[in-house]
Amino acid sequence: MVISKKVEFSASHVCRSSQLTDSENERVYGAAANPLGHGHNYVVEVAIEGDPDPVTGMILDLKRLKEILDEKVLCVYDHRLLNREVSPFDRVVPTVENIAIDIWNRIAPSIKGRARLYSVRVQETSDLSVEYRGAE
Amino acid sequence: MTVRTPTVWLSRRYEFFASHRLHSPAMTDAENLATYGKCNNPHGHGHNYEVELTVRGAVDPVTGRVVDLAALDRLAEEQILAPFRYRNLNEEVAAFQTTVPTTENLGAEVDRRLREAWPKTFPGSGPRLEKVRIWETERNICEIAQ
Lengths: 136, 146
Known about the structure:
CATH class of chain B: Alpha Beta
Strand content of chain B: 25-35%
CATH topology of chain A: Tetrahydropterin Synthase, Chain A
Mean pLDDT of chain A: 95
Radius of gyration of chain A: 16 Å
Radius of gyration of chain B: 18 Å
Order of helices and strands of chain B: EHEHEHHEE
Number of domains of chain A: 1
Helix content of chain B: 25-40%
CATH architecture of chain A: 2-Layer Sandwich
CATH architecture of chain B: 2-Layer Sandwich
Mean pLDDT of chain B: 94
Strand content of chain A: 25-35%
CATH superfamily of chain B: 6-pyruvoyl tetrahydropterin synthase/QueD
Shape of chain A: elongated
Strand order of the largest sheet of chain A: 3-1-2-4-5
Distance between the termini of chain A: 20 Å
Low-confidence stretches of chain A: none
CATH superfamily of chain A: 6-pyruvoyl tetrahydropterin synthase/QueD
Oligomer: heterodimer
Largest sheet of chain A: 5 strands, mixed
Number of domains of chain B: 1
Shape of chain B: elongated
Largest sheet of chain B: 5 strands, mixed
Order of helices and strands of chain A: EHEHEHHEE
Helix content of chain A: 25-40%
Largest interface: A-B, 28 and 19 residues
CATH class of chain A: Alpha Beta
């Protein structure tokens, strides 16, 4: 069984790679390559997999999941410039793909007991989202 | 630290407006009406269709992208949006002269067009088209998975 929880954060980013030329950056990232940055309201949906505890009926206490998301993701990401203020985006381009991977890496160690992290879905805009299910 | 190329699923949505009529020449008028209800209206009607393409692949370690979004947008524009936008699907799209433009058949046609053009846009072991979802209305959604 899979249960999921949604949270939101707002942040700014610049999609440019130092390994690409200016024209390559503009071709790959389009308007998102603007060096002055821009922002989004990100929606993060975290799915947890497991069998419900026979006593509590819960896979994972959702209050605990909310605490993990607050502490590991929202406190780090919300109202930040990702490139400057959130590791690893000083080295890695903060595309929505890399944001999903980073959120997975931040929360996976905290999901314990009968629950297992199943997927992290990040929606950057209403027409663009990404899902990551961990390293294969 | 070793360089990893994690797999992700990216979903991109597009919208187009088109009209259609659900009517099969293989059925009588009464059967068509019974099967399709108000969608059988001889004058046709339209929808705001939404198409979501889900692409699966490895994240490029340099760009941080799983797919070249500009190339994906171009492919969608050429194969789906330009041919379908503001069209009467029954009259103006070849496939629907022989099949009924239900959401199922429209989804299958979208999927067929994309898969046919895919290798030219994304050759070799590049990103794969994993899933096509099409919304006819908020409540009618069809999914074509690979």
